[in-house]
Amino acid sequence: MAGKPLLVSDDYPSSFEPDIYLSTYYSDPSPTPLLGDMMTFSLTQFQQAFASGQIKGRLIDFGTGPTITSVISASEHCESILLAEFSPQNRNILKQWQSGELKHSFAKFLDYALKLDGKGDSVADRESSMREKVSGIIPCDIRKENIFAPCFISSVDVITSSLCLESVARSIAEYESQAARLASVLRPGGHLVLFGCIGGSFYTVGSHRFSSFGMTSSELQAAWTKAGMKIITWKEGRRPNPEQKEESDTDGFFALVAKKA
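Structure (tokenized):
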């Protein structure tokens, strides 16, 4: 696999296999030798970001992929949720989830997030509430001026996003441009809650290797500051065995909460 070319954004519709992605990365959030506590870190940071109740309103989850884990905690504090995703096959998975037809289960992720909340909600009740709050599943492309074409979204109160921009950008300049484009969708005073990778160049789904543009912590923070976001919290973790590069060569991961000036 080492000699295979890296696939990029335009390859997703033809080559990204959501079923394999879900079974590889979203079967269980428990720490693994390869990813460490990446998934539990993500769930914990999203829960902590929304726990204060200060981040609320209308939410867009940008680059949702075939998963709903980014909005588990957000769903309790946001009145409506739009799921925006580039790949048609991933949007199809999200529609299957919303209708209750998806065979893959996110129950272990929901259970972990609900235990963090400590309110005693059941997995079934939370998932039902999430489905009801999803007001749409729409296409998006961060490379376009209107990133939600053919839809038009004026502004929202909250944007969440996980592992998205690094899979699109091919340079720091591109990442900065895309960060500014995404930030422009937020109303003044709106919040961004972001989870992503630090360093690296790829991740794998089945037999395919997809580009993941690696940036340092300081480069990432500078890009969002340049986009007009005031960083409120920044937290990061590291992969336990960075020498293992079968599925990914990223160095670590981060969570950012920021507010638009």
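The mean pLDDT is 95. Residues 188 and 260 are 5 Å apart (CA to CA).
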